[in-house]
Amino acid sequence: MSSLGNLTVITGPSGVGKGTIVRKILHNHSDVWLSISATTRKPRSGEIEGEHYLFLEKKDFQTIIDKEGFLEWASFSNNFYGTPKKIVKEKIEKGINVLLEIELQGARQIRKTFPDALQIFLAPPDLIELEKRIRGRGTESEESIRDRLAIANEEIIAKEEFDAVVINKDIDKALNEIEALMGLKSNQ
Ligand code: 5GP
Fold it and tell me: Based on the number of CB atoms within 10 Å of its own CB, is 34 exposed (0-12), middle (13-18) or buried (19 or more)?
């Protein structure tokens, strides 16, 4: 029987740079597979169905919840987000290393169902820098920015629950640290 793939969870406040780091990991390591989440959030400009998210109506998301089709799901800033169960399990069973980029409540659920998963918290240097990054992205309404910053506070308080905390001050340094934690060979 072939060995199982590893599961790695990357969590951190909105705007901390998880997406950029995850894209770099995928670019550097073709043997790592990123789970594409389902969400009820509306697509941002440039976001592609099936590449960034599976964009669903609330009722369709609810149907998947009812059928226990999510490995984990959470409500975040008035929208639902969830990790499809079947494909993630299939990848792990095939020996593929799977990456989840999810928020705190989801990470807590995975801790119960996959206690062996590596859980990494990506933290901003400070909250002022985080606010600058969210605003600089230019994708959120003022209400959503405030909401995301309030959630960020709660998430940062919970960072010690994670196996490792990586501070994203310098993106290449943070990437190297995460690659080392995941046991991946750095490109640099
Ligand atoms: P955004 O709206 O900025 O794309 O995502 C908001 C938050 O939801 C981010 O912290 C992101 O990591 C998280 N998220 C994305 N997909 C999932 C998922 O499948 N499950 C959970 N629990 N959180 C997710």
Answer: middle
